[in-house]
Amino acid sequence: MYKLVLALALGVATAFTPAPVARSVTRLAGAKEDLVDLAESNTDALGAAIGFWDPLGASNLDFWGLGEEGTIGYLRHAEIKHGRVAMAGFLGFCAGCTDIVKGPHTYLPYRGYVENVSPQEQWDNIPLYGKLQILVFVGMLESYGEGAGMDESEYVHYTKGGLPGFYPSIKGKGLGQISLDLYDPFGILPEQTEEEKERGRRVEINNGRAAMLGLFAVLSESKGLIVPPLDSIEGFPKYDGNVMIPFSNDFSILN
After folding, report:
1. Helix boundaries (H) for 119-179
2. For the whole model, what pTM was predicted?
3. I need a surface site. Which of 46, 59, 72, 201 has the fewest CB within 10 A?
4. Eight-state DSSP code of residue 13
5. How far apart (Å, rounded) are the C-alpha atoms in residues 35 and 37?
6. pLDDT tens per residue across span 26-35
């Protein structure tokens, strides 16, 4: 099993390179130009080969009356956010394959815990109230990420010229109950130059794209599909449920 985790981790190893998230304001009038520059200056294989590629013309669309510039900000932020979720999901899948997580526990992590099951089954076995607590916590983080309770000195929305991917400081929020920030919660990371921050943002985008592919790969392999080289890994965890019905063990309007 440790060989399995190592193979998964190395398959998308760069997906977990830490990258800083900093705040600045982009020029609304140049959002399209910024997008093209970002793509053409990307040093990964695809960026160097094809540069800016928008076959569906999404960068020319107008979502919900935001205008072209606001729509580009929305799309850029959405990609970064999905990449972060995918990085967390891929790392969670790897962690869920280890004996530390799926093995025997002296104190059960939750009522109804079952040993040695796949990461998806581990989620299925969590009681409904536990799942709802997780969703409420994620919803709270999402609301702060959209600038809830912030003024313009703290947060500029990404559809109005703010930096896509920026997550504001939440220390002191929640009526003072939140005492740590998400990024560098203990204040131990060194200060970075603007060039280092810019590079970190580009690295995060590339890592997020790799993690999205990696997460799709492990979920597909767990359903029995052929996903080289994952299908050659002995003992890869299989799952006969549906990951698109996350509450199937509790309730579902689709069943």
Report:
1. 119-125, 128-145
2. 0.82
3. 46
4. G
5. 5
6. 444 478 888 8
